[in-house]
Specification:
The protein has 294 residues and is an alpha/beta fold. It folds into two domains: 171 residues, Rossmann fold; 97 residues, 3-Layer(aba) Sandwich (Rossmann fold). Strands 1-2-10-7-8-9 form a six-stranded mixed β-sheet. A four-stranded parallel β-sheet has the order 5-4-3-6, with helices on both faces. Strand 3, helix 2 and strand 4 form a beta-alpha-beta unit. Helix 1 crosses helix 5, helix 5 packs across helix 6 and helix 7 packs across helix 8. It starts with 12 loop residues before the first strand and ends in a 15-residue tail after the last strand. Pfam families: PALP (PF00291). Its EC number is 2.5.1.47. Pathway: Amino-acid biosynthesis; L-cysteine biosynthesis; L-cysteine from L-serine: step 2/2.
Length: 294
């Protein structure tokens, strides 16, 4: 018999049917919303908790805390509860109610910080509790078990499911765990594979994608593992998220739309190749926002 945790990973890879006009380029979407917690973050959350428990770093008496913009928090709430761990999740107060309610449903404590300070304010709050109140932070931004989850699972799955033909990998960058781990694995298989990171343009707000100030740059990020960065505006990400739903039947959040928009910009410069773009989560997480309003 398998547990829900055994269903993390091995997500589908589906080919774009309408978006790509160049017949010599194939674009595949990796549907991470098919993970049990509904996002790509199930992978690092599981690996961070499982590895920390196995090392003896945390146990049922540990007070865990983590700052999150949403998807990591949902994954941690799901997995921590199955490990009988107490966890407090800290997020900006303007996070969608679907995210907050899902974390509560899984049994986590949720603390909301000011929307003005955003995720940086949430990170500061969590770090203060670690320093002064005996909490333990998983710290996804500096935790090597984050990117190693993708080195162990996401990268090998893409390599296998493209029959070793992938030429370009496109991923939004938040904690950067997905792109770091997948890049490390794919480059070991074929150094010629191009790794493309996606960031928002200045003043664009795209949930799940960040351009961090230097002092908050994730410690797991290594710029040498990214060949190219494509910047996407909020308008471009919104428009592509809607197109994914209407034209491809892929219902996802705005970071996935941002990655898809970047993938199409990339494809415009290509003669041939096989591109894989990460679809980070599901669109139902954003229904209370204005993302899908006309």
């Amino acid at each position: 018999m398998s547990s829900i945790l055994d269903l993390i990973g091995n997500t589908p890879l589906v080919e774009a049917q309408t978006l790509v006009k160049n017949k010599n380029v194939k674009l595949f979407f990796k549907l991470e919303g098919n993970n049990p917690g509904g996002s790509v973050k199930d992978r690092p959350a599981y690996n961070m908790i499982k590895s920390a428990v196995e090392r003896g770093d945390i146990n049922e008496n540990t007070k865990l805390i983590e700052a999150t913009s949403g998807n990591t928090g949902i994954a941690l709430a799901l997995i921590a509860n199955l490990y009988n761990l107490n966890i407090e999740l800290v997020m900006p107060e303007n996070s969608t109610k679907e995210r907050i309610q899902t974390m509560l449903a899984y049994g986590a404590k949720v603390t909301l910080t000011s929307s003005e300070t955003g995720i940086i304010g949430s990170r500061d709050y969590a770090e203060n509790k670690v320093k002064n109140e005996g909490y333990v932070g998983l710290n996804q931004f500096a935790n090597n078990d984050n990117w190693k989850a993708h080195y162990k699972t996401t990268g090998p799955e893409i390599w296998r499911d493209t029959h070793q033909k992938i030429t370009h990998f496109v991923s939004s960058m938040g904690t950067t765990g997905t792109i770091m781990g997948t890049s490390t694995y794919l480059k070991e298989q074929n150094e010629a594979i191009q790794i493309i990171g996606v960031q928002p343009t200045d003043n664009s707000k795209i949930p799940g994608i960040r351009k961090w100030p230097q002092e908050y740059l994730p410690k797991i990020f290594n710029p040498k593992k990214v060949d190219q960065v494509i910047e996407i505006s909020e308008e471009e990400a919104r428009a592509m998220t809607k197109r994914l739903a209407k034209e491809e039947g892929i219902f996802a959040g705005m970071s996935s739309g941002g990655a898809a928009a970047a993938a199409l910009k990339l494809i415009d410069t290509m003669e041939e190749g096989v591109v894989v773009s990460i679809v980070c989560d599901r669109g139902d997480r954003y229904l209370s926002s204005n993302l899908f309003e006309e």
